[in-house]
Amino acid sequence: MKVDLIERAEKFEEMKMSHMSTSDRVVASREAKDLILSINKIYKKTKESELMEIMKKITVKKKRIEQRLKGRPLV
What we know:
Blueprint (H helix, E strand, L loop, with lengths): L1 H13 L7 H25 L2 H22 L5
Helix pairs in contact: 1-2, 1-3, 2-3
């Protein structure tokens, strides 16, 4: 299970963000949330620093996707 999650996380990190439609961004954001929560469950038990680093990388990418979804302020 842990290996599967790490593989999914690596695949998510390598995914290109350019030329994504809005629905693709929504799907990617939800997938990132699912990955982060799943990895966090394992991290709580094992406290492996590798898992924390993976969660941080996914969170950064998720924030970029959500920022693009919400758009820029008009100010």
